[in-house]
Amino acid sequence: MSRAFYACLAKPVTPERGFKTAEFEGRVLRAQAAMRSAGLDAMFFTTEPEIRYFTGYLTRFWESPSRPWFLVLPQSGKPVAVIPSIGAALMSKTWITDIRTWSSPDLEDDGLSLLASTIKDRVSKAGRIAVPSGHETHLRMPLSDFERLKAALPLYEFASDQGIMRSLRMVKSEAEIAKIKTACEIAGRAFDRVPEIAQQGRPLDAVFRGFQSLCLQEGADWVPYLAGGHGPLGYEDVISPAGPELLQPGDALMLDTGLIHDGYFCDFDRNFVAGKPAPELSAAWERLLEAVEAGKEAAMPGKTTADVFHAMDKIVTGGKGTGDAGRLGHGLGMQLTEWPSLIAADQTILQEGMVLTLEPGIAIPGGGLLVHEDDFVIREAGPEQLSPLASLSLPRLD
Predict the structure, then answer these.
(1) CB within 8 Å of 365: residues ≥ 6 apart
(2) Nearest to residue 285, comparing CAs of 275, 272, 274, 300?
(3) Domain positions in the chain
(4) What is the CA angle 137-142-146, rounded to 5?
(5) Which CATH number fits domain 174-397: 3.30.420.240, 3.50.50.60, 3.90.230.10, 3.40.50.20?
(6) What is the topology classification, in CATH, of domain 21-169?
(7) Torsion sign over Cα 229, 230, 231, 232
(8) Is the bond leading into 154 cis (omega within 30 degrees of zero)?
(9) Do 21-169 and 174-397 show the same overall fold?
(10) Which of 7, 27, 36, 307 is the most exposed place for a label (fewest CB within 10 A)?
């Protein structure tokens, strides 16, 4: 066999893009069953994750705030897209067949009359229309337009979705989990190549740009999130952008990435050390790995996110429950952070198919922070790790 043949075998297999129609049909049927139980006649969506969840409509055009986008999901039948005409061609490539458009931006009527007529067409008079209204939700349309919509539909009641969308999105299908795992594998390959772009004396902003390039080379569609830090005994925070400061001998370096593959995020970090680590740094790293193991043992179906928090917090703070981050992990999927939050007050019951990050952090006496994060899916026998295994000792950069 030729070298080219073996080189081809070594390349990662390109996963199938998108979902089969049955994936969306199942989501719609589960939502409609929940709507009937809650006495809701339709659901109304304005935000990218919810619209994509039911349609598969994937575009970066959401970065522009100029145009509103709407989706109406009646209690029976398929969703109806009410969108600016610039998006019609792409939406027609999804499984959605009822696509109603207007020319936007329109300063007088930016889709409101079309949206109101669509609701009247698909929802019986005096119907109850649900809007996601809880924690981690927002309304992506001008508030004045929402008031005008309600005034145009005086017989309809706009109400909370009672957490239906949160419940639906929190438990992932195997097809969704596969996309998250692929995103994790891409990031893992990029992390393996960090020594190519991070050396002592290199500016941190150059390291950040180099790492984003590695992610793209390894198969990321884009890299919406990258943060990190560095310092001799940890770092000040975990959300700062990079500056021109140089990586010094003995510095810890952390890169935390949320890259996207086919609309789904990974979210995990990796820590490195420039040269020989200080004993305090190595000791903190060992405790972080111990905390993650404790979190994994607690992350069983039927347990709560609070149980997982307490298991990790006992290792990193002795059970004090303190820390500037506010939580020790979160849900993951179409968004970088999703419900639930791993905090003491969150009593969300873990279910098979939930994807979580475990993200303990530890304060180093006389220094800064050290944070470690990995991604897992809840299984009956215990959590399955989606991100590659972290090194038992801090990887060294020359």
Answers:
(1) 280
(2) 272
(3) 21-169, 174-397
(4) 80
(5) 3.90.230.10
(6) Creatine Amidinohydrolase; Chain A, domain 1 (3.40.350)
(7) positive
(8) no
(9) no
(10) 7
Task: Give the pair of three-digit tokens for residue 354.
Answer: 């939930």
Nearest to 26 by CA among 37, 36, 17, 34: 34
CA dihedral 33, 35, 37, 40 (to 10 degrees): -150
Specify whether the CB–CB gap between 330 and 268 falls below 8 A. no
Q: Residue 42 is encoded by which pair of tokens? A: 């339709």
Q: Is the peptide bond before 340 cis (omega within 30 degrees of 0)?
A: yes
Sign of CA dihedral 207, 208, 210, 214: positive
Q: At 139, phi and psi to the nearest 5?
A: -105, 115
Structure pTM?
A: 0.94
Per-residue pLDDT of the chain (398 residues; tens, 9 = 90+): 444 434 444 455 567 899 999 999 999 999 999 999 999 999 999 999 999 999 999 999 999 999 999 999 999 999 999 999 999 999 999 999 999 999 999 999 999 999 999 999 999 888 999 999 999 999 999 999 999 999 999 999 999 999 999 999 999 999 999 999 999 999 999 999 999 999 999 999 999 999 999 999 999 999 999 999 999 999 998 888 899 999 999 999 999 999 999 999 999 999 999 999 999 999 999 999 999 999 999 999 999 999 999 999 999 999 887 666 689 999 999 999 999 999 999 999 999 999 999 999 999 999 999 999 999 999 999 999 999 999 999 999 98
